Amino acid sequence: KQAQSRVKALERMERIAPVLTEAEFTFEFQEPLNLPNPMLSLRHTDLGYPPSTAEEASLEESSLPRTILHKVSRSVQAGERIGILGANGQGKSTLIKTLAGVLTPLNGEMIQGRGLTLGYFAQQELDVLQPEDTPLAHMIRLAKAAIAQGKGGWVQGREQDLRNYLGSFNFTGEMLAQRVEP
């Protein structure tokens, strides 16, 4: 009986992808053709979340913007490496989301150097992946969205460009046709 109940419990458990402990993975970032200087600047910028819509406001306390960071003034120069440290809830993710263009500054000025293209992989990025997609299908969707927003400078939307890009991260051959879902 005990063995049967354990078998049933195992059958009800969610399947997860196997852990690859010995998997070798290397890649290189492409060298940019030129680097603007400064690459990115914030001047007296308030960062946070915009006012709620009327529908959301009825569910929340306020329809005012929620400012997380006040009067931020910083620049990132070409060749600099930066680290963003702080306790939970202090605005690190808000800063990163603003720099990546996911959030718009509430006020002040954010200036991106000419030709700068930012990439962003969110903490919860796996939630954005569609399980039925392949890596190539995901990249095609991202490329179409970037081109529609006028940010398609990193790719012309050709499938071969996307295959080459994925190949630079060791996604080749059959891996391009495997579904994201384990």
Automatic annotation (TrEMBL):
It holds the Pfam family ABC_tran. InterPro entries: ABC_transporter-like_ATP-bd, ABCF, P-loop_NTPase. GO terms for molecular function: ATP binding; ATP hydrolysis activity. Residues 69-129 form the ABC transporter domain. Keywords: ATP-binding, Nucleotide-binding, Repeat. This is ABC transporter, ATP-binding protein. The lineage of its organism: unclassified sequences, metagenomes, ecological metagenomes.
